[in-house]
Design a protein that fits this description.
Strand content: under 5%
Number of domains: 2
Largest sheet: none
Radius of gyration: 21 Å
Shape: globular
Order of helices and strands: HHHHHHHHHHHHH
Helix content: over 70%
Length: 394
C-alpha cells in the first residue's frame, strides 16, 4: 500500500493525517445514540436488579464495539475510498444490534450476537487493511481478532441459555474481549492523540444527551409544577456532569496523552484511561438517565431500591470514573470527588424513604457544591490550565 499521498487501491485504507473528528465519524456515532437509549429503556421497563444487570452488560458490549472503531479511525481516514462504504455497512449492523437490545436476553439473543459479530468483523477487516505496510500493527490486529472472535463466540453460546447462566456467559464474553488488548500488548497500535481524546469526549456528550432525552421521556408529554421542577433539576445535573469532565479534565488529559512517549507508553495510557476508564463514566451517566426518567415520571413518590441505586449510585460511579481517570493520568487522587462518591453510595437507602424529587435535588446540590468548592480552590490555576491546554490543542 502506498503512502497517503499516493494512488490507492479502492480497497486500501488511507492513513489519517488530521486530528479533527470528521463528519462521517459524527454520523457513525448516531447509531450509538439509539443503542444507549435502548439500554435506558430496557432498565426502565424492567425495574429489577436483573433488568439493571442486563442493561449494564449490554452497555459493556456496545462500549467495547464502539471503542474498537475509535482506535481504527485514529489510524485510517474513514472518509477515504471504499472505507466509508464499510463504515456504512457497520452502521447498518449496529442499527440491528440497537433494535435487538430490549430482547437481547430473550428472543433476539442470537440475532444480537450475530449482528455484533458482523460489526466487529468489519472493524477487524479495516484494521487489517490499515496495517498492510506495518508488521507491528498487523500483529496487534491478529491478537485483537482472536479476542474478538472469542468474545463473540461466547455471546453466541450465551444465546442458548437463560437466567443466571446466560448472564454469567455475557460477563465472561465481555471480560475475555476487553482483556485481549491488555494481555497481547500495546506496542503495535497507532493513535492520533488529539483525535482520540476528542472522540471519547464526543461519546460522553452522546451519553449526556441520553440523560436529557430521559427528562423528556419521563415527562411523557405532561407538565405540572413537580415535573417542571424535576426537569430543571435534571438539566442542572447534566450540566454538572458536563462541567466536571469538560471544564478542565478533558483538556488536560488530551494534552497529557499528546505529550506521552509515542508507542507503548502512549498506547497504554490511551487504553487504560480512555478505553477502560471511560466505560465507568458512560455507565454512570446511563444509570443517572434511567434514575432521572423514573424520578420525573414519579416525582412525588419514593424511589424503589433499583432506581435509587441508578440515580445516586450512577452518580457515584461517574465520579469514581473521574477519580480513576485522573489517577491513571497523573497518579494523584481527587479526594473531594472520591469522598462525594462514597457519601452518595451511603445515601442510597435514604433515597428510598423520601420523595424522588428530593433525592434528585440532593444529587444536584451535592454536585454544584463540589464544583463551587473546586473552583474556589483552583480558580486561578484552572484558568491558566485551560489557556495552556487550549493553546497546545491549537
Amino acid at each position: 500500500m502506498e503512502g497517503s499521498a499516493g494512488t490507492h487501491h479502492r480497497l486500501s485504507a488511507t492513513r489519517r493525517e488530521g486530528e479533527r473528528v470528521t463528519p462521517l465519524e459524527l454520523f457513525f456515532d448516531l447509531v450509538f445514540v439509539l443503542a444507549i437509549t435502548q439500554c435506558t429503556a430496557l432498565m426502565s421497563h424492567d425495574q429489577t436488579w436483573s433488568g439493571l444487570a442486563q442493561g449494564l452488560l449490554i452497555l459493556g458490549v456496545l462500549w467495547w464495539a464502539w471503542v474498537g472503531y475509535s482506535w481504527l479511525t485514529s489510524v485510517i481516514d474513514p472518509e477515504a475510498g471504499a472505507v466509508r462504504i464499510v463504515i456504512f455497512a457497520a452502521m447498518a449492523a449496529m442499527l440491528i444490534v440497537s433494535l435487538c437490545v430490549q430482547e437481547a436476553f430473550d428472543n433476539l439473543a442470537l440475532t444480537f450476537a450475530l449482528a455484533i459479530g458482523v460489526f466487529r468483523a468489519a472493524h477487524i477487516a479495516l484494521f487489517w487493511l490499515a496495517g498492510a505496510d506495518d508488521k507491528d500493527l498487523r500483529r496487534s490486529v491478529i491478537g485483537l481478532a482472536v479476542s474478538t472472535a472469542i468474545g463473540v463466540a461466547v455471546l453466541v453460546l450465551a444465546s442458548f441459555f437463560d437466567g443466571l447462566a446466560q448472564g454469567a456467559l455475557w460477563a465472561l464474553a465481555i471480560f475475555l474481549d476487553m482483556a485481549g488488548p491488555y494481555f497481547f500488548g500495546a506496542d503495535g497500535w497507532k493513535i492520533v492523540p488529539g483525535h482520540f481524546a476528542e472522540r471519547h469526549g464526543l461519546i460522553v456528550i452522546i451519553a449526556l444527551g441520553e440523560s436529557i432525552v430521559a427528562v423528556g421521556v419521563g415527562a411523557s408529554g405532561a407538565l405540572d409544577l413537580g415535573i417542571g421542577t424535576a426537569a430543571v433539576l435534571g438539566i442542572f445535573l447534566a450540566a454538572a456532569l458536563w462541567w466536571t469532565y469538560f471544564d478542565v479534565v478533558a483538556l488536560i488529559s488530551a494534552r497529557r496523552l499528546g505529550e506521552a512517549e509515542v508507542g507503548r507508553t502512549q498506547n497504554e495510557l490511551a487504553r487504560d484511561s480512555y478505553s477502560y476508564v471511560h466505560l465507568l463514566m458512560v455507565a454512570g451517566i446511563v444509570l443517572i438517565a434511567y434514575g432521572m426518567k423514573v424520578t420525573i415520571g414519579h416525582h412525588s413518590e419514593e424511589l424503589h431500591d433499583v432506581p435509587a441505586f441508578a440515580l445516586l449510585g450512577g452518580l457515584a460511579i461517574y465520579l469514581l470514573g473521574l477519580v480513576a481517570f485522573r489517577y491513571r493520568q497523573v497518579q494523584t487522587v481527587n479526594r473531594r470527588r472520591l469522598g462525594l462518591a462514597i457519601v452518595l453510595l451511603f445515601l442510597i437507602p435514604v433515597a428510598t424513604a423520601m420523595p424522588s424529587l428530593i433525592s434528585l435535588a440532593l444529587t444536584v446540590v451535592s454536585m454544584w457544591v463540589l464544583i463551587v468548592v473546586e473552583h474556589r480552590k483552583y480558580g486561578s490555576r484552572r484558568d491558566e490550565l485551560r489557556r495552556e491546554a487550549s493553546a497546545a490543542h491549537t
